[in-house]
Every structure is written in C-alpha cells, then in structure tokens.
Write a structure and sequence with these properties.
Length: about 775
Amino acid sequence: MSNRRKTHLDALEARLTGPKRIALFGHRNVGKTTLLAMFYRQASTGQVPGVRLAAVDPASAEYLAEKIAQIESGEPPAGTLAETELKLRLYHGPARFDLIFKDYQGEHVTLGSQEPIREFFADCDAVLLCLDPDGSTQPAERRRRQQEVEELLERYIEKSDDGTVGRPVALLLTKFDRILARGEAGQGLDQVERLVEARYGMTRHLLARHVPDGAMFAVSSYGRGSVDGRPPAELHPLGLEGPLCWLAERLEAVDRDQLEWLWDLAPDDLPRLARCVAAYEKRYPRSDRSADFRRRLAEGRRRRRRKLVVRGTLAAGAIVAGLAGYDAWGYRNALAFERDTPPQAVARHWEQLATWHPTLPLFWPKSAVDARFKAAEWKVKATQARILAGTAPPDAGEKLAPLKDQVPELVDRIREVEAAQERERQEKRWQAVKSEAAGAADEPDAPLMAIKGFLREFPDTQHRAEAEALLNSLKGKVETRQSGRERQIIDDMIRSASLPNASFPDLIDQARQFMAEHPDSRYQPEVARLLEGYVKTLDDRDIEKAREFSRRNPNEFARRIERYDEYLRAHRNGGRYISEATEAKDRVLRAWDVADYRRGYDHFIAHPNDVAEVARILREYLRHHPDGQHAADANRYLAWWDKVSVPNDYRVTLRRGEFDPKLGTAFGGAPDLGVTLEVAGISYGPSPVIRNNFKPIWDYTFSRPIRWKLGDPVVVRVMAHGFWSDSPAVILSSKKGDPLAMKMLSGTIRPTKGGTTTLVFESDFPLPSLPKPGP
C-alpha cells in the first residue's frame, strides 16, 4: 500500500472514529459566541425538542457558563479576542456526537487572512455560515461578507473531484428577531430564502450550485424584545432546534456515505473496517445500517479465511515437494563426497547431513537409515586415521562408545580403535616417565611416584621389567637422600638445644613432628631419647621458675599462683611436678587469705575507731577470698558496719556514779545530782535526782531509746540541783570526730582531765570485734 493511499485511508478512518469538527463561520459582531452559548443553554436544559447538548470537559463548561451568565444578567457577551476550543456532545435520539467548536475573533476570517482558525476550517466535518441580515447597509460591506464566505467554500471546492464542497453547509441568518420586529418577513422557509436572495444573492447562488445538501435557517439567540443588541429580561430564542437537528441528521448521512466509500476503497482492510464499524455502532446504536455493516464485515472475514486456507495449502504442498527434493539431493551429494576425500571431512559431511536435512527420515526413510550408518562408519574411520597419525585427542575412543549400542555392526571395529588408542596412550606415558626419570638424578621423588603410578595404571605393560629396574634404582637414591635429610634435621635439633636461649617447646614440637612424619626412620630411637630429654629439661625449668618467683616475691600471692598455673597448663599431660605445683598453689592461697585478713585485723587493733577503713579492708578481703577461712568473721563485721551506718535505737541504763567531794554544797553537804544525755543534738532524760550523795546509784533506764548512727557525738551532763537554781556539775563529751561515741554509754567514763569522778552506763549497743588470725 502506497504512503499516499495509506494517508488517505488514515484520514478517512479518523473522520469516522474521531470527534466531529464543526466550523462556525462568521465575521465580528455576527453573534457567533452568543449563538454557541444559547445553543448550550437551551439544548442542555431540554428546551430544544429532540436534542441535548452537553459540555465534555470543565474548560468548555466554564467558558459557556460565563457567557450565559453575562447574557442572563442583561449584558451582551464581550467581543472574542482569543481562540478557544469547545468540546461538546450532541445527543439526537439514540445517536450521540462528540463535537469540537472553536470560538475566535471575527476579524480572523477577513479576506486574505492566514490565521490558525483557517486550518481548523480546512479539516472540518460541517460548516455553519453565520450572516447578519440586519448588518451593514452598505452594498460594498455586504459584498465583502459574501466574498469571505466565497473564499472559504472555494477552498473546499478546489480539493473536491465533483465541484462540491464535500461536507454539509448551512446558512444561519442570525438576529432574525430584528427582521420580525420590523415586519419585513415571515418565518416560513420561502420567505427566508427570498430574504437571503435579496441581501446575500452571491452566497445564495454559491450554495445552490455547489452544496447539494445545504440548508438555510433563521435564528435568534435572544428572541423578541432585544433593544440595541442587549438581551431582554426574558430570553425566548427562535429557531435553534433547526440547525442542531439538521446537523445531527447530516452528520449521520455523511458517516454512512464515508463508511461506504471506505468499503469501496479498501474492502480487504478488515481491521480498519472493523474499527470504523465499531465506532459507527457506538455513535448510532439503533441504526438500521449497523446490521448490514456487520454482515458485510463477517463476509469479508470469511473470504479472507478461505483465501488463507487455499494459499496455505498450496504453500504447504510446495514446501513439502521442495523439502523432499532437497533431502534427495543432499543424500546423493553426500555419497558423491565420499570419493577421494579424507575420512575426517567425509564424517563431518555425513553428520551435517542430519543437521541440514531433518526431514530426510520423513520422505526417504531408507536413505535416512543408510545415512546414520554412514555417519557412524566414517566417524570410526576418521578416529582410526587420527590415532595412526598421532593427532587424536585423549578421549577419542570414549566418544565412540555410544556407537556400540546405536550401530552394533561396528562394535569390532570400534574395539580395534579403542585398543589402538590405549596402546598409543601407554607408549606416550612410558616415554614421558622414562624421560622424567632420566633427567631427575638429584630429585628422584617425583620420578619414583610417576613410575609407581604407571605400573598401577598399566599392570600388564610390556615395559614392566624395565620399569621395575628403574624403580629399584630410584628407591635407593630416595632412601639415601631421605636419610641425609633426616640426619640434618636431628643435628639441627641437637645444635639448637645447646644454645643458651634454646626454645624447648619448639624443640619438642620438632621432635614429635619428625616421629610422626618419619615413622620408618632408623633415627626414631635417637629422636625419642632427645624428646624425653627436652621434656624433662622443660619440666625442671618451668617448676624452678615458679619456685624462684615465690622465694623472691613472698607477698605477691596472685602472681605466685599464676606462675604455678602456667606450669600446670604447660605440663597438664604428664609433668613430674604436678602434685608439687598443686600443693604450692593451695599453700599460697591460704597464706594470701591469712595475709589479707591480718591487714584488717591489725588495723582494727591499732585503730579501733577507724571502722570505715577496717570495713574497706574486709570488703577487699572478701572480693579476693569469698570462701576464705575468715569470711564469716569479715561478714559479721560488715553486717555490724551496715547497721551502725544508719540511725538505730538503743536502750541505755545509768547504773551509778562517784564524784569528787569538791562538788559539795556551800554548807558542806553532798549535792543533789541528776544526769541528762545529748546525742546528735537531741536531749534524753533527765534521770531521777539522787540527793545528798557523792556515790549515787541510779539503776535508771532512760524511758526513750537513744537514736544514734556512726559519727553522731554524745554529751553527758551531770546537773547539781540547788535550792535556788540548777547548774552543771560535770560535762563529759565524746572526742571530736569520734565515730564510736556511743561506746561512752556502754561502760565507765571519766573526765579527760582526770579526777575521781566516774559514771557507769550499760546499753545494748554491740561493740565490734574481730578474732585474731592464726599463724
């Protein structure tokens, strides 16, 4: 199909399946925008019988709504300045049309203009010519309007083959309400035609000659009552149903004609026809022509299938005949190729025959069987020739093994080929082994292994006697060389052991490795003696290190234990001093236990009031010796420390006292004495007053428990009660910073300056104690 023909068919299909482009042609102020807005207003609200108009996209709906709002407010729409595309949908009975209008500036259709709207007019499906019957009264101006119409239609006529415009064209006389208002014409068709003939004769004549399916309509967007171009208060449009119904009917007729035309132009282009018929049925769902179009489409498909079947049958017959001839030629050509051709090339040719002629068994079954036998036979011949020439790969015989089952007739010949290749392989291997043995006098190990491998692989070889003689010769060389190497290793170990800084663990490893790697060596006993000596020397040296460290560092208990642990780890598999090291560890651990505890005990004895430091030392002791022999004593002391570190209540009893006679009264008698306690700033007492006695006995338990914690000060005041007043006789205070001031209330106390004065207390305050450690 030529490009020009395809372009023409594509354009015709686009018209049948795409939206309809409607040209609304008219000069400025002819009422195009108003007419479009009123078409939409009336047809979308059911005021145009038989049709409905809808906006397809939001932009079109908003544009028309704005124009309608201006009209309904009593203002005529402003002149159009920009080109605007409007997408509408026209429903006429069951049919529906997607329409595209363009609103534009009227000056763009002036004679000679080349505005973009001209391209839209050139590709439109129908034309609505808008002329104002009440326009300019000047004949020249009226003629210019008709010449603009003439220029548009002439472009259509120029492209046609029959002198027609090739699309529906209707003339709309707009603003017809003004003509009716002046009574110049009635509303009949004849009267409208006479009016057009009188004022637009040129256009009337052009339509009559070149538009066979044209029409004329008188319309008014506002209806009667318009004044000076302004819409009346109530709108009563006239004649709008005529153009819309005519447009729907003509578009359907054009679609039918164009579909028929497409059928005439491309009756075999069934996919294109199917698309166009589907679009027609969607646009006109109840058209009586749809069934006819579907029937013709089904007939076309049946004709195409019949043609395809016939063509396929003929093509298949030709192919079969060609394949049969091609296979027969190939077989004869392979037979001819056998003459005066090397076996390798002949074998490849027969193998390629099966590849290039896969249908040979179908058309010539006997030739196919012969071809398979020939391919196998020549493959065996080719392999045999390559073996004789010494160019066969190592697995050439193995590749022939499947042929034994496929072609039993060739089994004997295949075995001969395999035997020949095996002899060839054995001979090559023997020559390689001999060459390796002859060139390796200083390194006999590899040739020795090669000869052993050759005899294992070829036990029945004809070279066996020669191979065994060569093997014995190499064994002697290997044994002599191996003995020298072993002697060198032993001498190196002896020399290393004599050095001052000899590493006996490395020597032990070397000796053990030698015995493992040389189990048949004649030096095994000597190496065993060396190994025993190395083990003994290392054992003695390691235990002596631990002993020496303990002697020099008696107080570094942890490091002493670590040294013995090092010995035990190093000699866990049989050291001679395992028991000694284990017992030494236990002794050091016990000594460490006693030493750490003794530090706490000695501090407790030397500084009984420094209970915080004693507690710290004992905690350190428990961290290192949680199960030590003094762990219970340490835990008891720390429990006492935890208790006295927080406030607790204690019962205190004042037993008796003895006072200096100097405390007597002015009249020579003994004083009347009572006791008050002050602990952590809180007073307790007073006790009962004992009258006229230097050795009072109270035996008084303070009614309120004494609340005390570690560090709280204690003050004891002995009050002398006189006739006129009470005064302190003796004040006994705990030492500043004394953490155990509570001990004052658990025994006998005296003034720090001396004298005979004493006070005796008893309390349930427990004093700390630590047992003396053993030796």
